């Protein structure tokens, strides 16, 4: 029987093994990474004929979602099972687990939401429409305290001809409230380009050019600076 080991960085010391499914269940085993001993072996019941969208592990919680079925949140220690209806929770394109707050982020159709492990929606964001449809995590940063999310987002600005702008914005939002607390946007009159220093490179971008087609984003929490890279191979530094 072949297995696919999934190791979650937010579940220290635990490895989840997912065995080949049968028509009615999938065998699962939780191992201790320290000594390889099995901690729990069990069978999770499935709906016959429905593909598995995902199986995700977060500490003692197991998230299982099948095609066109409710999300199941299983506590592997107590065997308590919680279901979230498919009308409320649709399959996301990506997850980020917030181990400090015992919550998880979901990304779907450019939107972000925060959930708890009781199946309750904690936060929806008021101004945080992601630029990329497929949720490129290269353009998303979660702070160490897991209280802020910084992302490359769709901008409200329009192009000169009235069409949708190809220039995005960098939005910083509070994870617990969903409020946008800061934004770097091309139409912000407070933004300016730092003076050129002696010996500095001769390649310069305008602010709109620097916010176009951003492919990577990083926030230096010590220096309070945001670094972005774009498809032209240029790196820009944003500081207050």
Plain-language structure description:
The protein has 240 residues and is mostly beta strands. 2% of the residues lie in helices and 45% in strands. It has one helix at 207-210; strands at residues 3-6, 14-19, 25-32, 38-45, 52-58, 61-66, 71-75, 81-84, 94-98, 103-108, 111-116, 121-124, 140-142, 148-153, 169-174, 180-184, 214-220, 225-230, 235-239. The protein has a four-stranded antiparallel sheet with strand order 1-2-3-4, with no helix packed on it. A four-stranded antiparallel sheet has the order 5-6-7-8, with no helix packed on it. The chain has a four-stranded antiparallel sheet with strand order 9-10-11-12, with no helix packed on it. The radius of gyration is 21 Å and the shape is elongated. It starts with a strand and ends with a strand. The model is unreliable at 1-10 and 158-163 (pLDDT under 50). InterPro entries: DUF7899, WD40/YVTN_repeat-like_dom_sf, WD40_repeat_dom_sf. This is Anaphase-promoting complex subunit 4 WD40 domain-containing protein. It holds the Pfam family DUF7899.
Main structural class:
mainly beta
* Low-pLDDT regions: 1-10, 158-163
With strands numbered from the N-terminus, the spatial order across the biggest sheet is 1-2-3-4
Quantity of strands, as a count: 19
Quick check: average pLDDT?
Answer: 85
- Round the Cα radius of gyration to an integer and report it: 21 Å
Short summary of the structure?
With 240 residues, the chain is mainly beta. The protein has one helix at 207-210; strands at residues 3-6, 14-19, 25-32, 38-45, 52-58, 61-66, 71-75, 81-84, 94-98, 103-108, 111-116, 121-124, 140-142, 148-153, 169-174, 180-184, 214-220, 225-230, 235-239.
